[in-house]
TrEMBL record:
Transmembrane segments: none annotated. One of its GO terms (molecular function) is UDP-glucosyltransferase activity. This is UDP-glycosyltransferases domain-containing protein. It comes from the Eukaryota. InterPro entries: UDP-glycosyltransf_plant. The lineage of its organism: Eukaryota, Viridiplantae, Streptophyta, Embryophyta, Tracheophyta. Keywords: Glycosyltransferase, Transferase.
Length: 314
């Protein structure tokens, strides 16, 4: 029993202040906690209160760190969902000011591993200095990371304009048509910090961590995962797609009761024939109206039944 207990780890989770990132990190936290590891989930008070109200996770210790004030950032804002896109750079500046508080926590909490996001690019270097292992967990898939490129590519400034991201990169060695539309990159430019770009942040997160993982699986993206291992020069481990927790009890401990909406959707999907369902994701901070969902369904297939769209829209 003692040797088994010694394998249990204290893991700190440090996600970016966007709901899609927070929820993905929470799902990973639940999985690790159910394995018996101690989890410290670090975020700001408002975000932690939101997570607590939406998901009862008694196995996770939520660590609240007040977000420092920054000129240009509304006083009550603590996540991207509360800001227009041109204000997001101020949120990134405020997040960077959490570095002393997070460093203090890492130094005095007995953490063994840190799972961090790309915005806090300084975390893996701090972890190395303190003798703690770190993992960069990307909430996007492997093909997205391949498109962005290696840390050296990110820091080379070869792609300086939004137009440079509208073509498939030369290092992609498998068939792919993945590229951004120009308006997508123009919009992203508006949310980048002018002092530290997202490309610099991602490069630091990747090159200074022990290994990289992402929300994907080799069954879907075997070529992309293999190429990431090559261009990163370090281990790359896909975590899977992180469906919502559905089991009410794990190891005799009452955990989340599961996502009831996911149970309904899963039952609906299991009744469909293979290759008969189209999945479209809008992101966690977009809420299309029911009317818009119906229009989209008709646009894909004029004879498409609307029950599934109505369910998803809710």
């Amino acid at each position: 029993m003692e040797s088994k207990d010694q394998k249990k780890l204290h893991i700190a989770m440090i996600p970016w202040l966007a709901y899609g990132h927070l929820m993905s990190y929470l799902e990973v936290s639940k999985f690790l906690a159910q394995k018996g590891h101690r989890i410290s989930f670090i975020s700001t008070p408002k975000n932690i209160n939101r997570l607590r109200s939406s998901s009862f996770s008694p196995l996770i210790d939520f660590v609240e760190l007040p977000l420092p004030a920054v000129d240009g950032l509304p006083e009550s804002a603590e996540s991207t969902s509360e800001l227009p896109i041109n204000k997001v750079p101020y949120l990134k500046k405020a997040y960077d000011l959490l570095k002393p508080s997070i460093t203090h926590f890492i130094e005095h909490s007995g953490v063994n591993w840190i799972v961090h996001d790309f915005i806090c690019y300084w975390v893996p270097r701090v972890a190395t200095q303190l003798g703690v292992n770190s993992v960069y967990f990307s909430v996007t898939n492997a093909n997205s990371l391949v498109f962005i490129g290696s840390p050296s590519e990110l820091l080379s400034n070869k792609r300086r304009r939004p137009e440079d991201f509208t073509v498939v990169p030369e290092w992609v060695d498998y068939p792919s048509n993945l590229a951004f539309k120009l308006h997508e990159m123009v919009t992203h430019w508006d949310c980048m910090d002018d002092e530290v770009s997202d490309f610099q942040r991602l490069a630091g997160a990747i090159q200074d961590c022990n290994f990289v993982t992402m929300r994907s699986c080799t069954e879907f993206e075997s070529d992309a995962v293999s190429l990431l291992r090559k261009i990163y020069g370090k281990p790359v481990v896909p975590l899977g797609l992180l469906p919502p927790v559905s089991a009410p009890h794990q190891h005799g401990v009452a955990d989340d009761r599961g996502d009831e909406t996911w149970e309904v959707l899963r039952g609906w999907l299991e009744n469909k024939k293979p290759n008969s369902v189209v999945y479209i994701a809008f992101g966690t901070e977009v809420t299309p109206s029911l009317e818009l969902m119906h229009e989209l369904a008709h646009g894909i297939n004029p004879g498409c039944p609307l029950f599934g769209w109505s369910t998803i829209a809710r």
